[in-house]
Structure formats: C-alpha cells, structure tokens
Amino acid sequence: MEILLAIMTGILYASGIYMIMRRSLVKLILGIVLLGNGVNLLIFVLGRITKGEPPIIDDSQKVLEGIYADPIPQALILTAIVISFGLQSFAIILVKRAYKVLKTDDLDQLNTTDEDS
Amino acid sequence: MIDILIYITSSLGAIFVLLAAIGILRMPDQYLRISVNTKAATLGVGLLLAAAAIFFLDVSVTTRVIAVIIFILITAPVGAHLIGRTSYFLGNKLWDKSVIDDLKGKYNKSTHELKGDDKDSKEDKSNTEE
Amino acid sequence: MKTLILRSASSYLLPVLLIFSVFILLRGHYLPGGGFVGGLVAAIAFVLDAFANGLKKTKILIKIHPGFLMPLGLLVAFLSGISPMIIADMPIMTGLWAGHPIPVIGAIGTPLFFDIGVYLVVIGASLTIIFTISESA
Amino acid sequence: MLEAVLLGFLFSIFLVFAGRYFRGKLAVLSALIPISLFVYFASFINEVAQGKVILESVEWIPSFGVNLSFTLDGLSLLFALMITGVGSLVFLYTAAYLKNHKYLDRFYGYLSLFMSAMLGLVLSDNLMSMFIFWELTSISSFYLIGFNNDKADSRKSALTALGITGIGGLLFLGGAVLLGDVAGTYRISEMLGMSDSILKSPEYILIVILIFAAAFTKSAQFPFHFWLPGAMKAPTPVSTYLHSATMVKAGVYLLFRMSPVLGGSDFWHHTLIIFGAITMLYSAIHIIFRTDLKGILAYSTISALGILVFLIGIGTQAALIAASVFIIVHALYKASLFLITGIIDHETGTRDITQLSGLKKVLMPVAIAGFIAALISGGVPPSLGFVGKDLIYEATLHFENNAILLTVIAIATNILLFYAGFVAGVKPFFGKLPDKFEKVHMPSPLMWIPPLLMTVGGLIFGIFPGLIETTFAKPIVNALVTDTEDFHLKLWHGFNTILALSATTLVLGTILYFTIKPKHKLEQAISKLDRIAPKNLLFKLSNGFVDFSSLWTSVFQNGYLRHYLSLIVAFLIIAVGFLLFKDFSLNIDLRSLSRVTIYEISILTMLLCSVLYTVFTKSRLAAVASMGVVGLSFSLLFLFYSAPDLAMTQFSVDTLTVILFVLVLYKLPKYLNLSDNKVRIKHGILSLVFGSMITLLILRVLSEPKNTEISEYYAENAYTLAHGKNIVNVILVDFRGIDTMIEISVLIVAALGVFGLLKLRLKSKDKK
Amino acid sequence: MNIHDFLYYIILPILSISSLLVFVRFIKGPSIVDRVVALDLLITISIGIIAVYSIINDKPTFLDISLVLALIAFLGTVAFAYYLEKRNKND
Amino acid sequence: MKTKFLSNILLTLIWVFLTGGYEFNNFLFGFVLSFIILWILSNNDNNSEKKYFKIIPKLISFVLFFLWEMIKANIQVAYEVITPPHNMKPGIVSLPLDAKTDLEITLLANLITLTPGTLSLDVSTDRSVLYIHSMYVFDREDFINDIKNGFEKRLLEILR
Amino acid sequence: MINDIILLPLVVHLFFSIVLMFFWNKVNFQKTFSVCANVIALGVAVYVFMFVYNNGTQTVQSGNWDAPFGITFVGDMLAATLVLLTAISGLAVSIFSTVSVINARLRFGYFSVFHFLLLGLNGAFLTGDIFNLYVWFEIIIISSFVLISIGGEKNQLEGAVKYFALNFFASMIFLTALGVLYGLVGTLNMADISMKIAEVENRTLVEICAVLFLVGFGIKSAIFPLYFWLPASYHTPPSAVSAIFAGLLTKVGVYALIRVFTLIFLDDVFLDNLLIALAIMTIFSGGIGALIQTNIKKVFMYFIICHIGFMIGGLGLFTEVAIAGVIFYLVHDIIIKTNLFLMSGLIYRIKSNFNMKKIGGLYANYPKLSLLMAIPLFSLIGIPPLSGYWPKISLILASFDAQQYWFFGALIFGSLITLVVIAKLWSEVFWKDQPKIEFPKKFLFFDQMKLKDKFLFVFPITFLTFVTLYIGFGAEHIQQLSQRIASELMNNQLYIDAVFKN
Ligand code: NA
Ligand code: NA
Q1: DSSP string computed for D526-579
Q2: Which ligand is nearest to the CA of G70?
C-alpha cells in the first residue's frame, strides 16, 4: 500500500504545482490546497502507516502497548492542516481582492511590479 | 444471536447503500436522484450504525449511534430541500416523462419569493413539463 | 437564504452542535477531539445559523464580536502557558494538575485551559474570516 | 601622528555643523590646518634625514590585525610634506578661487577629509589601515570631482573616477588580505624581512596582480587612465591637489612601498616597465592633440605617472632616486601649472589654448610663474627638472635589458612633456593680447602667490639639489633598497652621454613647440580614433553590461509567477534528481509494507480521480466540489491509518474551506484556460517529473529503518506524566504545546489579514 | 466466516464499490447539483464505512468521526445551495 | 405541558441523586418511574396538561408509523433502482398546508422527504403551500389527500 | 524563572500582541503602546544578550519535558545576537510606523500583526526544534502576508499574490524536508537530529534532505534561482513594512540555513560547492538587478539579494573565519537594510516619489539629512571603516584559504556594483537638481509636517545610523562576538551538550 500512497503523493505534488503554474488565480488557490494535501500525505507516509491502531490509550490501560500508529506525524500534520487553513483562507481572500482591484484573473497581467518603474 | 443481528443489519445496510449508489447513477433527473439519496442512503447508513451499536453493546456507543442517526435524519431532508429548490432555480429540467409541475412560474426570478397556490395559477396545474 | 425549513432546522441544530463542540473539546485529552476540532464545529454551527437567518441575526445571537474571541482565547492559552513560570517556577507550558481525574474530561490542568484557549481562538478566527467575507460578498 | 591624521577629519566634521561661518572671509583660516600640519611634519626632517624611522601604533581592531600603525620614513615624509605643503597652498588659493561660493564650507570639508585620508595612506604601516585611507581618498575625491553636482558632466566624471578607483580599491583589499595571510601580518615593516618567502609562495603572482590593479587604477596607468582627464571637471584646486600632486601618486606610493616586499621578480619588473612605458608614451602623444589647457595638463600628468611606474619597474637604486626626485619635480611644476590654468580660467573664462595669448601684459606675476614652471617641466637647467631628467636617463641607460629602447622611449616622452609644459605655461602669456582680454585684471594674491612660491622652490632645489638629496632621496633609498650605494645629486655632471641626451631633448622639444601649434582640427582628427580608445571601449563594455543586465533581469524577473515557480521546480529537479540517481537503488522489503485492500484502493481511486478532475475540469465550481471529495478521501485515509484526530480535523477544515470558497467564488472570475498547449505540456512534464521524484524519494526513505524512541516515550508517559490518553492531543497541548500556541496565532493573524483586506478601503486622500 | 471477516470481505467492499459508483455520478454531473448531491451521498456512505471499520478494528472511538461527519457534512450542501442561489439571483 | 415535562425531569434527577447511580439505565428508569407517578397524579389537571400523558404513546406510534413508511420507501426505491425507470410518473405537486408554525412545517416537510418517493422542494413564502416532488403522481388529489390524512394529521396531533 | 530568561522576548511580544488586539480601534493607544513595548523588548533583548554573553548557551525545556521529548529552546550566542538585532530594528520600525503608516492601516491591526511578526522572528532564532522552527516560520510569513497586502492597493496586491504563492511553496518544501528528515531519524529536536543523522547509512538521502532544506530556506532568504518573489513584492507595501522585511525576513532564512548547515548537514563537499555556486549567482544576479533599476526601493531590494549571496557563500566556505564573516555581515546587514528602507520612506515623504529620474536636489535642500543618509549608504558599500567593510575581510580571506577564487571574484563584483550603484543613486537623488515634475496636490510633504512628526521620521534613521556606526567603529567588539559565534557554530557538540545537559 505504501507504494500506492507514495505514487499518490507524487501525483498530488505534481497536480498542485501544475495548478499553481496556471495563469488563473482560482487555479492558483486550488493548487495550493492540493500541494498542501500532498505534503501532509508525505509526512504521514514517511511516518510509516499502521492500520486500525490509533495512538489512544485504552480506558483500562495506563500506557500504550503493542502496535500503534506513530502519534508524532499525526500531531505535526494536524498543526500543518491548521496552519494551511489559515494560509488558504487568507489566499482566497487575497485572490478575491486582487481580482476586484486588478480586474483580471490572468496572472500574466500581474507583472507590473516586477518591471522597472 | 447478536452476531446474526449484526449480519442482518449490516447486510441490509450495505444493500441499501448500494441501491442508493446505483440509484443516483441511474435516475434520470436531479430531483429523482436527490429523492433516492435521502432515502436509501439514510436507511442504509442507519442500519450500519445500528450494527455498530449492537456490536459494541455499550451505552456510550449506543447514544452516539442514536445521535448520528438523528443528525442524519434531520440534516438529510433539509439538505435535499435546499439542493432541490436550488436545482429548480438553476432551471434544471424535470425528466421528460414527468407528469406535472405545480412549481412552474411560482418563483419570482429576482427575489426568489415563492408564491402560494393562488387562483391565477390554478390552470397551470395539469400542465406537464415539456 | 429565505427558507423556512432551513431556518427552523438550524434553530434546533445550533444548540446541538454547540453542545457537541464543547463535548469534543473537553474529551480531547482522552479520545479524538480537542480544542481545534471543537472550535471548528462551533464555528460551523454559527455559520449554519448565518446561512439560515442572515448574518445580522447571527451576530446579535453571538453577542460578542468574534474578533474579540481571538485575543481572549489567545490570552487564556497564553496564561495557561506561562502560569507555570510564574506560579511554580517551572518552564513554560509545564502542565500543572489539580485533583483527581473526572469522567469525560479527565484530569483538570493547565493543558485543559490551553485547549479551551485554542477552542476560543478557532471559533473567533473562523468566524471572523467567514463573517467578514459574507459581509463583503 | 594619529592626531595629525585625525585633525583633518575632525575639521571636516566640525564644518558640518559650523560650516556657515566658513563660507565668507573666515574661509582662509582653513588653511591653518594644512600649514600647521606641514610645520609639524617638517619638524621631522632632521630626524628622518639622519636615518631614523619614527613608528607609532595604536591598537584598533586587533581581531582583524588592523591597527593604526604609522611610520615616518623618508618616503612617507616626502609624501606627507607634499600633501600638506601643496595642501596649504591649495587651501589658500581656494579661499580666493571659490570666494563667496555657496558651498565653500563643504569644499573645505572635502578637502581636509581628503588631506587626512591621504596622510593616513602614506603614513600607514598597516596594509589594512592603508586600504582604509585609500578608500577614503576615493570617496573624498568623488565628492570633490562632483562638487559642481548640478552639472551632469561633473556627476558622470565623478562616477567614472569612483568606479575605476573603486574596483582598484577592492582588488587592493583582496591583495592586502592575501598578502597578510601569506605573511601572517599586515604590518609592512614586518613584511620587509619576509620578501623571499613571499616571493616563493604560490599566491605571489595573484598578490602582485591585485596590487598592480590597485596601483594602476589609482595612478591612471594605461588602460585605466581615462578617468583622470574626466576628473578635470572638478574645480581647479581639486585638479591641482588630487590629480596632479597627491592622490594620483597614491598608486605610485603603493608600488614604492611594496617594492622591497614584492619586487625582485621578473614579473614585477617587466609588468611595471611595460605598463609604465606604454602609459608615458601613449599619453604624451595625446598632448599634441589637445586644446584644453586642463586636458593637456591631465595627459601630461598621466605621462608623468607612467614615468614613475616605469622607473619603479626598473627598480635600480638609480631609478628609485630618479623617481623620488621626479615626484618632487612633478608636484612643483604640475601643481603650479594647474593653479595658473585656474587663474587664466577664472579671469578670462576660457581654457582654450588656441584663444589664449599675450596675457603677460595683464597677468605678469602669473606669467613669471608659468614660465618657470615650463622650465622645470621641460628640464631646462638650472631647474630641478633638469636634475630629474638626467636621473631618468641615467636609470634607463644603465638598465640591464633593452637600455636603448627604454632610453628612447624616455626621451620621446620628455620631449613631449617639454612641449606640454611650454604650451601650458608659456604660450598663454606671449604673443598678442586679444582685445577681449584687455580688461582682465590680476586676481587676489592668494591665487598667484602659491604657484609662484612653488616654481621658485623648483628653481632653488635645482640650484641646490643637495637639499633634496639629504632630506628625501637618501632616506627614501634607505627605506626601499637594502644594499645602498653612495650617491650625490648634482646639477652638473660634466659632459657625458646623459648631457647629450638632455640637450637633444631640449632642442627637439623647442622645435616641437615652435612647429606644432595646438589646433582644433588636430583634436577633431584624433577624435576619430576615440572609438578604440580604452575609455570608449570600456564604456561600450559597461553599456553592454548594462544591456546584458537588463536582459538577464528581464529573463529571470519577467513578472510571470509560473515562470518563477518553474525555475524553482527545475532547480529542485536538477539538484534532487542528480542526487537521487547518483547511486540509484530501490530495495524495498515488500513484506514490511501493509497489504493492499479493496477499500483502500477504492478510496485511492476516488482521491486520484477527484484530484485529476480538479486539475482538468473547466468549471471552477465543480473543481471546488471536487476538492470536497479530495478532503473526504483524505479523512477516510487518515481514519484507515489510525489517525482519528486527523480525520476529524481534515474533514471540518475541508468543510470550512469549501464554505469559504463558495462564499467568494462568484466574486471570482470565470475559470479560463489561458495557457496554450505548448506551455501546458511543458508545465505538465515539469510537474510530473517533480512528482515522480517525490514518489521515488518516499520509497527510498521508506526502505530505511525508523527510529521510534520518541513515540515510545510518549506511549509510555502520556498518561502517567501528562494525564491524557489521546496521545495526539497530549502532544498538541502538552509535549509540543508551543507549536499549538503559535499555530493559533497564525490563525489569528490570518483572520486579521482577511479582515483588513476586505474591510480596509484606502480613500484617495489616505493613499499618502 | 466470523463477523470480522464478513464485514471485511463483503460489507466493506460493497460500500467501497458504492462510493465509486457515486463518484461516477460526481464526475458525470452533468449539473453542479448532481455533484453536490453525489458529494453528500459520498459523505453519508463514508459514515457507514466508518461504522463498519470501527467494528472491524474494535475501536468505538472511530464512531466519533462519523458524528462529526454527520453534523457538518450538510453544511457543504447548504453552502453550495447558497452559492448557486446567490449566483442565480445576480445573473 | 412544559411544566409537566420539567417536573418529570426534576423527579428523575431526584431519583438519580437518591439512588446515587449515574448510569444511563438509572436515568431511564427514573424517567419512566416519575412519568408514571405524574400520570397517576394527573387527574386534577386541566386538559392542556393532561396532553402530556397522551403524547408519549402517540409519539411512539408515530415513530413506528414513520419507520414503516421509511422501509416502504426504501423498498420502493430499491425496486425503481434495479428496474428500468419506465413506470415512474414523477412530478411536482403543490400541497396546501394546515401546519402553521415553523416547527410543524419543517417536521412535515422533512418527514415527507424521508418517506416514499417524495421530496419536499420548498414552502411558499406565505407558508400556505408545500411543493413536493414525487416519483409517482398517478392522481393529484389522491396524492394530496394521502399526505394530509397520513403524515400531516398525525404530526399535528402530536404537536398541537 | 531564571531558566526561562531566553523566552522573555517571546513572552513579551506575545503579550503585546494580545493587548494590542484588545485595543483594536484605539490608534493612538496602539502607537504609544507599541513604541513602549518595543522599548521594553529592546531592554529584554539586551538583558538576554548580556545573560547569554556572560553565562554561555541557555536552554529551556518547554513543558519540563527533557530533550528530545518536548520542544527545547536554545539561546546560544547567535540566537541572542539576532534577538538583540531584531529588537533594535523592531524599535526603529515601530517608531517610524507611527508617523509613516497611515492611520487607516493602523486601525486594522497593523501593530498587533507587527508584534506577531517580531514574535515569530524571535521564536525562529530561539527554537531548538526543527518543526517548531517551521511553525515560527509560518507565523512570520502569515504576518508578512498581512503586512504586505494590508491596504490592498493595486501593486501591493500584485506583489502579494506572488509573494504568497512562492513563500507558500517554500513552506511546502520545508515541510517536505521535515517529513523526509523525520522519516530518517524519527526525531525533531535539532540537537538530537544532529546526533542521529550521523547514524543514517544512506548519505544520499541525507543530502537530498539538505537540498530540500536549502530550497525551502533559500526561497525565503532569496538566493538564486529562488528569489523572484522578492523583487516582485518588497517595494509594494509602506516603507516601514519593507524595512522590517528587508532587515529581518530574508535574514531569518539565512539564519535557518546557517543553523541547519552548521548543526545537521556537515562536511559535505557537494552541498558546500552548491552553496558557493548559488552564492556566486545570487551576488551576480542581485547586483546586476540593482544596476538597472531606477526605483530606489527596487535598487535596495536587489541589494538584499546581492548581499545575501555574501552570507550564503561564506556558509559554503564553511571555515571558522568564513562563518565569522557571515555573522558579522549578518549583523551589519540587518541594521543597514532596515535603515535603507526607512530612508526610502523618508525620501518618499520629501519627494513623493521613488523614481530616481524624478527626484533630485536632496543634498542642496537637506544637507544634514543627506549626510545622515550618506552614512548608511557608505556602510552598505563597505567604505572602510564603516560596517560593511569588516566582514569582507574575513570572507575574502576565507575564500582565498579555500581557494574559491570564483567566490572571491563574486565578492569583488558584488562590492563594486554596490559602490557604483550607490554612487549613481547618490548622484541622481542627492546631487542632481530636482527635475520638473508635477507633485501630487493631496500629499503631506515632509516640510509640511509637524516638528514632532518630523522628529519621529528622522529619529529611527538616526538611531539605526548610530548602531551602524558602532558596528563599524566598534568592529573589534562585533568581530570578537562573530568569532565566538563562529567557534560555537563550528563546534556543534557545544550545542548538543547544552540541549542535553539536564
Ligand atoms: Na485532539
Ligand atoms: Na507541559
């Protein structure tokens, strides 16, 4: 399964990057979301996957024994998800404002600041 | 005994879910798909959850299962209503074998106010959608 | 949206969702859940209300400006983070625990207050974002 | 000595605040600074003449080995006296020349800054501090050249000068650092004994090249000479002070100083001789084609600098004596000629030599000074110039290789310099006085006394060369040459080859003066060759470089986000790909992997299809809905792989994101396919390659063993120590609580940002 | 065949295939309404999958996720409806 | 009715405190017990308060009715799904409403949605009409009457 | 409490941000409070610096969990120095902001986001945990996103979109690197990683991981070919914002590179050469970018890039001398770049324009201000003995020792082009007469400002100029500090011991 997940991660990276490279602002955001998901999956897979054994100590137990999923990548991804959520919501609004002010969806029109003025 | 109950509920649940899936794939128009969705799936999932409740036989699990089922029963029809009326706004046509459309012409296009069953629209009743 | 069905359904769903969010928040230390998901659920509850009844009514309902919840929550988290420094001369974020564990919540300690801070911040931030967007939409 | 060096700096800082008092009549008081310094340094003449070397060292930045170490030997004393002496006269002259100028105080500020820097340079025994002062001379000269900064010409000249000397300075720094590294010290006095080991070190050639670069740029050697004529845009006192007497000699000074340390190799000598020879002849020839007085003087200065480099290159004791005497000669006559030119310019308003004649009627004392200066310059006995010229021929004639060739070059140069001196110092004053200059009157004595003083000095030294010999020539030779032979400076050596050569020079020079008259035609004729002049070649090069810069920048910084991203991705592909395939191996233990099940497959299929659908759909709404499916699939995956917290969070976040999208979506543009197919394919390939790289990377990492120490610790202690059973939550609020604290701060800031972005509307008056 | 195997080898695959079928509708559309309905149904089916998965792994905790799904899934539908209606109005 | 309910809850709590058993079953038992006690004591109450005791049986029967309808609905759907869709007669029908309050209308609409072949699309702005999409509209009036006599009536009985 | 001293900068800034959010609408309160807060923060930073200076590296195990189980904060000399510099720049910018940023912007949480930014910077410097570093980076970038876009003017938004996209991408690469690293060593504590990564057999994977970190941090620190977002965006927000960005944002990337490449990825020829090659291209690209600009903010911006190359190259040389040079340069650069952008704000206030072609005559009309501004400009060039000069000695020396002559050439090139461009700028902006252009009517020119406001405009510039002068003339102190930091960095066992001492 890990192989399939690795391939999936690669596809998520590829599609995220591909979408960011489009000229449309909306695609940019979708690309960001996809890429973010890809990264989460990468961390998750590299933390090694375990099925059906969440890192939760049983009611009756005091320590977690036997096989269990590594909680650290989960905590990291959780943090990353929240942060990405903040960034994505900001990005969505940024794009909305940009579209309103610049009146274009075409990223190629957004190149005046790079030019010498 | 409990096992048999689980076999039955889970099988039925899965079958209804499968039916809902086939239904949404096969039904000819949006309204029918919505209709299928809200029924079969709700029941199917309810049964699967029930299977879980039976399996664990634990108060906290049972309450949770009941809670989930109630939530689904509340939200599914509301969602269906919302998306159904939206579909109508969007002008999604009824299946061409539909027999009646009382809703035709009742929505005010700009305010989305919906007229009641007043007199001047009575004659529309028997009209079928093209 | 002007729909009676949604409106009345949401008026029953709102308290349920809120209770549920607090439940998720409090049991997070023992079972899946915690301040973040709890906060999101609570925020979603208010968003639902806003969809059904309009933003103005929801704002009146909440009473405090969601923007205010953010510093409030952060303050709670901050205080529970630095209290060990001040009270117990321990490093920042050291858990201070009181008494015996109680059902659902587990032991009461600074991490719980920290999680409550997270909960408030998440509600505040999500609502600020969504309400602002709705207002300017 | 430190105080002496700092005095000028302090004065210029003082002028920043009290400058307004020095714009008027008090300005002349500024001259007290150089005069007192001159007196101060003059007081060391005796000690130094007796062979003493005065050292002084103040610790400054020992970590770098940079100390303010000063040494006063024959060489530095000569330069110090020249700097302060010529400085005094220039300071006095300026008071009249720029009388009532709005920015006279600034001018004095720069001048004294420059003077201090120059003093520091020549007194430094530490290469690093020498470099510091070196750079300060460049900077202060930048301000002096650009003094008339409302004129575009001046600004451009200042920039050119700074650019050329700047690069030299930086190379000097490189050389100094390298030399310091090789020698283990920056103290020049300590390096003296290490000459042999430095010569043998592998870095020697590099050091010499760097030092040469510094010296050649500063002292205007071919092909870096062209900044100097440009620098003549500066007010005359500046040209006098910096560009004839002092700053341009800094390079020469450096070569002097370094010759005991770095000299002795063929590379050293040959390079200097070649560059010096080319410079002296090349610019001497230039003189014929100039009509601007200052231009003539500029080229003759370059030529003189060439002679000095040439002599240092020859490097024999005779040559060094010749060089040190020639420095004095040149300072005296060239400074005078500049000051005289300044007077002519100041009083007649022109420096065009073709228009100037007969001025002796109205400017008699100036004419006298000019005449004497011309004599010195031409090496006419009994001036010091004659002594200098003889010494040069003596040095060339007795050089081991190509003595004849070198002598011929020297003679040719001297003839042309003779011509230059007479054109500048004599021609304006003789002949018929044009009507328009009838009303020209004598300037303030402050202006004509300085040149007169200097030229008279040149005569006196010529008649009594012994003064120079004891005070400067011998101490200098002592400082620079290890096995000195006894020598004496004399005006009259008797009849010999050298006298014959001198006579030839004078005769040919005179003939030249009377046959060739400066003409605009000549100037125009030569200007056709400007295309291949180093100056223009370099300008072309720099213009080309600017064009190239624009091209480079517009290629890389073209404003297209996708372009930037594809560059970054391409870089990643190259760097990571290189490593990945450097020793490619993929040995995954398939048994260690988890089984593939149908539900996982179906979720993955769904995920895959929804991702692809998001990418390729033409409806943005469908894309958003598709993102919902992606989120759902993720939740399920997290669930399958034992991450319930993640599953919950992913799903709630996803719902909120969809809501967000939906709220703004109809404010967003339609979902256009803007790129053409070629671009799409290019990006597609790039993305796919990158994606496959990530896949391979994951697989390779998965085949490595994993360390589980920390998760085991959590599993054991989450409940007993942190009172929680959901370990993920315990990590979030306890083990790694700080992460969470900051993470919620991120959310808050994002919310503030959204609020600000949407609510803040700058009205036009707000926009600053 | 015990309950575990039954659920694992029969029920879960059925549910998985159901999701794929629904997903086909999602891709096919043709209207956005179809997609929203399909998404909603996918989530509902996921609740079922979670229920079964919790039995298989004997982890009642997983049911909490289904609770979250049940509660907020419908918000997506509400949001889409809101959007479509608003867009329709503005046209 | 509300007061009765509250007293019921109060009594339940008292029971729970007295017994000291905080489990779900004890709550349930306490609730049933106090319900019976209140019912016994209810003879002197006025009509509206008596309703509280009728409502529970009605509620139970309604739930059963609803479940039955729902199972029927699903079987019907199952049939439709696996056979070719030729014998459907779908259409949108306007149903005049007797239900008045928000809760009544909403519950009715939702229940209709959950049961055979029908889907509540919308309520008119003046609340007079509920528009229903149905898979089978063989006869418009029969269809309306079925709902009015079935769901609406039962529902309103409970709610009013 | 005594152990937590190094956390004080974090605690105070977080506290200030919270307080400022509570007083959302009170602009005047926010101004006063922020300035006072920054004075306090400076005091704290000085205290922390002195404490670390006297007592050596300090560590705090947050949550009282022994390393590597919790998040460890490490205040070594490098971190303490950067905290101090952040406080200095922060104070200057906050004073400058009170008059240069319009009230409309201030009313929308400018100051509180500003303190979050400072919080993030301090956190990034102090943390000893790689994932925690990521989180600090995120608070930094989200704050910078907000600051760069707040006000929402046209070019601001254009810049912000690119800034966002590429910085987001950088974060993603950073996270990817983190994932790979965790997959290899199973720990996040940097000291622990440093020990465990040595045991990883597959060195290629370690190198790949390093390259990923290099790109992640490299985008943030604007090295070639990853810098493109910077020229597209840094000039668009108000000058005060550009100033803090210029001074600190790219430097935090440099800091991270220094940390990672001195603590975790060591002794790798491939990586060192890669760093040097990138540094050369960075210097080159940045330098020629600056050469062709006419907007003074853009000129300064390209210099940010150009001079980052100096530091990255020094890191690539990886000798104690080189690292000392890098640290010295870092110290110099933070102060000077902040000041440059404050100056550009002042020039804009005087002339209502950033374009060199349209402004002139500053020297004639504002001689004292011009001289004041000349000092930072000269320091930037590295005119000895000002601050930019000293680190070059170390860098040049190190490049010779390592026989990296191309890098030496790049250093010379970068310095020369800085010299030429600044001289050109001086000649255009200060020397040239004011060209005849139409000045905007509704513009509050510097001359029309109240004396108090003028003072607030000039004071931060003067303050930073004095700091720069100190760095130049007190180079001995800075160099000793740099050498100490360099030796600490080159001996990473010290760091590891400090983390695990308890
Ligand atoms: Na949690
Ligand atoms: Na703790």
Answers
A1: HHGGGGGSHHHHHHHHHHHHHHHHHHHHHHHS-S-HHHHHHHHHHHHHHHHHHH
A2: 2
Q: Are chains B and A in contact at 3+ CB pairs closer than 8 Å? A: no
Other chains touching D, judged by 3 or more CB pairs under 8 Å: A, C, E, G
Please indicate, yes or no, if residue A10 is contained in any of the structural domains: yes
| Structural domain boundaries enclosing G162 | 2-500
CATH of the domain at A35: 1.10.287.3510
Kindly state whether residues D492 and D629 are assigned to the same domain: no
DSSP state string for chain B? -HHHHHHHHHHHHHHHHHHHHHHHHH-SSHHHHHHHIIIIIHHHHHHHHHHHHHHH--HHHHHHHHHHHHHHHHHHHHHHHHHHHHHHHTTPPPPTT--EETTTTTB-TTT--B--S-GGGGGGTTPPP-
Chain C: nearest CA to E31, how far in angstroms?
A: 21
Q: Tell me, yes or no, if C91 comes closer than 8 A to chain A by beta carbon.
A: no
CATH annotation of F87-159: 3.30.70
Structure tokens at G474: 């007190």
> Which of C7, C8, C16 should one mutate to test binding to chain B, selecting the residue with the greatest count of B CBs within 10 A?
C16
pLDDT tens for chain G, 502 residues: list them.
456 889 999 999 999 999 999 988 888 999 999 999 999 999 999 999 999 999 999 999 988 888 889 999 999 999 999 999 999 999 999 999 999 888 888 888 899 999 999 999 999 999 999 999 999 999 999 999 999 888 777 888 888 888 999 999 999 999 999 999 999 999 999 999 999 998 888 888 999 999 999 999 999 999 988 988 888 888 888 899 999 999 999 899 999 999 999 999 987 889 999 999 999 999 999 999 999 999 999 999 999 999 999 999 999 999 999 999 999 999 999 999 999 999 999 999 998 889 998 898 898 889 889 999 999 999 999 988 899 999 999 999 999 999 999 999 999 999 999 999 999 999 999 988 888 888 888 888 888 889 999 999 999 999 999 999 999 999 999 999 999 999 999 998 999 999 998 5
**This model's pTM is above 0.90:** yes
Residues D543 and D661 in one domain: no
Q: Closest chain E residue to D598 measured between Cα atoms? A: E13
* d(CA D726, ligand 2 centre) in Å: 15
Question: Pick from D636, D652, D670: which residue ends a domain?
Answer: D670
Q: CA of F103, closest CA in chain C: separation in Å? A: 6
Whether residues D541 and D506 fall in one domain: no
- Write out the residues surrounding ion ligand 2, Cβ under 5 A: C 93-95; D 734; G 63
A117: in domain: no
Residue type present at position A24: S
Instruction: Give the best residue of D612, D620, D636 to mutate against chain E (max E CB count within 10 A).
Output: D636
Question: Containing domain of residue D532, as a range?
Answer: 519-556
Contact G63 C78 (CB under 8 A): no
Q: Cβ(D285)–Cβ(D315) under 8 Å? A: no
Please give the tally of structural domains in chain A: 1
* Integer Cα distance of D517 and D357 in angstroms: 12
Contact C89 G1 (CB under 8 A): yes
Query: How many domains does one find in chain C?
Result: 1
Nearest-by-Cβ selection for D690 from A13, A25, A51: A13
Residue D546 lies in a domain: yes
Do D513 and D626 share a structural domain? no
C136 in contact with D at a CB cutoff of 8 Å?
A: yes
Looking at the fold, whether D390 and D490 belong to one and the same domain comes out as yes
Interface contact C23, partner E, CB < 8 A: no
CA–CA gap between residue C42 and residue C23 (Å, rounded)? 11
